[in-house]
Amino acid sequence: MSNPTRQPLETCPSCGCPDLFIRKDFPQKIGLLIVVIAALVFLILASNPHTFYLGAWVLVGAAVVDALLYCFVPKITICYRCRAEFRDVPLHPRHGGFELSVAEKYRQ
What we know:
108 residues
């Protein structure tokens, strides 16, 4: 939970970079793993006409899990240059999602 007395970041406190972005604080590999497992289980169950409906329910379940994670996982601020993550600061309304064109400026 963020501290209401703190100000949103204008620049990165680690490297001074003025370009920051916001994303969900959730490991992308775990999200991808959920999707891959749901897809494999669906394909296995869908190969038999008698269990196809179970495969469909697996996909619905994966979508529900994804929606719940999206609703409850907090957002964090990240620096484009040094990739430092800041969890305990308020989100700045000027900072948006990741933009590849900005990230290319800081690619090493």
